[in-house]
Design goal:
It comes from Mycolicibacterium arabiense. The protein starts with 12 loop residues before the first strand and ends with a helix. The chain has helices at residues 27-35, 53-57, 61-75, 86-97, 121-124, 128-133, 141-146, 154-160, 169-177, 206-216, 236-250; strands at residues 13-16, 40-41, 80-84, 102-106, 193-198, 219-223. The chain is an alpha/beta fold. Helix 3 packs across helix 4 (86-97).
């Protein structure tokens, strides 16, 4: 029997970047999803492209959520929501107030407290003053190499670090303390959920990722050797390939 997938319309995707990120850093994902027939909408969260410290200084998670929700509503039809890191938290929040076709969480920040891991603490200490004060910041290249990018090839880490952007200390403070803006009513998330985690993640501990998946009755997948930057181009075939297979099976 002939494969009729090309005759079926694919739903749009809202793709949300994470901390220190911007849509252009998700270009490999955008290209792969569009090649599979999906129309991808990838908004820029406040103050990140171009970098604007005045905007970042007054930006919290609710401000980011407002931008993400507005982008979803402007699509004008039920869509898939997909997010990396903080974008994963925003994906959960959208799924609780709208009716997306599916939600895909990529190394997602949890609702509630983002508990630090002991091995990451030495890298967190230098940024604590800015986080506690809610000031914009960008960690050192060494911190980026050893925490969010830790298991990527050295050449890829070197290429990514100059492209990362400053982020909001207020957002980090809210995530670290489990502020009300991080909370999600799990009972209101009724769409299918895929939770994809990174086994070498030094930002979001594996036990937190498992808890997120259990919270939504999600399908759970772990990539043991990948870091928090699970959206890296070098991991595209491994991670995006599985996501596309799940989307075809779940909403295709």
């Amino acid at each position: 029997m002939a494969d009729d997938r090309t005759d079926r319309p694919t739903p749009p995707i809202l793709l949300l970047h994470g901390v220190f990120g911007r849509p252009e850093l998700l270009r490999p994902w955008i290209d792969r999803l569009e090649a599979a027939g999906y129309a991808v909408h990838a908004p820029t969260l406040p103050g990140r492209d171009p970098t604007d410290d005045h905007v970042l200084a007054r930006t919290g998670i609710e401000d980011c959520f407002a931008v993400a929700l507005d982008a979803y509503d402007h699509i004008g039809e039920p869509a898939i929501v997909m997010g990396h890191s903080m974008g994963g938290l925003l994906t959960q929040k959208i799924a609780a107030v709208r009716a997306p076709l599916a939600a895909v969480l990529l190394a997602s920040i949890p609702p509630g407290v983002l508990w630090p891991q002991l091995r990451a603490l030495p890298y967190l200490v230098p940024i604590l003053p800015r986080v506690l004060a809610g000031r914009p910041f960008l960690p050192s290249a060494r911190t980026m190499r050893e925490v969010p990018l830790n298991t990527l090839p050295a050449t890829e880490r070197a290429a990514l670090i100059p492209l990362l952007v400053r982020d909001s200390g207020r957002v980090f403070r809210e995530m670290s303390m489990g502020a009300p803006a991080t909370r999600v009513d799990a009972a209101r998330v009724t769409c299918p959920v895929l939770c994809v985690s990174a086994g070498a993640d030094r930002n979001v501990a594996p036990w937190l990722s498992r808890r997120i998946a259990a919270r939504y009755g999600a399908e759970y997948r772990v990539h043991p050797d990948l870091p928090h930057w699970i959206v890296a181009e070098s991991a595209l075939d491994e991670v995006a390939g599985g996501v596309l297979e799940w989307l075809e099976r779940t909403v295709g």
